[in-house]
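Q: RFX4 isoform 12, please. Structure only.
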Amino acid sequence: MHCGLLEEPDMDSTDEEKENNRASKPHSTPATLQWLEENYEIAEGVCIPRSALYMHYLDFCEKNDTQPVNAASFGKQ
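A: Structure for RFX4 isoform 12:
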């Protein structure tokens, strides 16, 4: 089971590889990443399913009349 929401940086990748990797992946908006940081923190030994976080995020978006990112892009940077 993958518990990490945000991806860990690959310390062995070159800058060019990192840039190519970023360009090929969908990204969350800065507002989405800010919402994650304001509502959750990383804690060792704790695992919350991405789907539970996404449901909380969708509820927030609906209450704030905000267009959510799609589930596949949620939490990626």
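A: Brief note, in case it's useful. The two ends are 20 Å apart (CA to CA).
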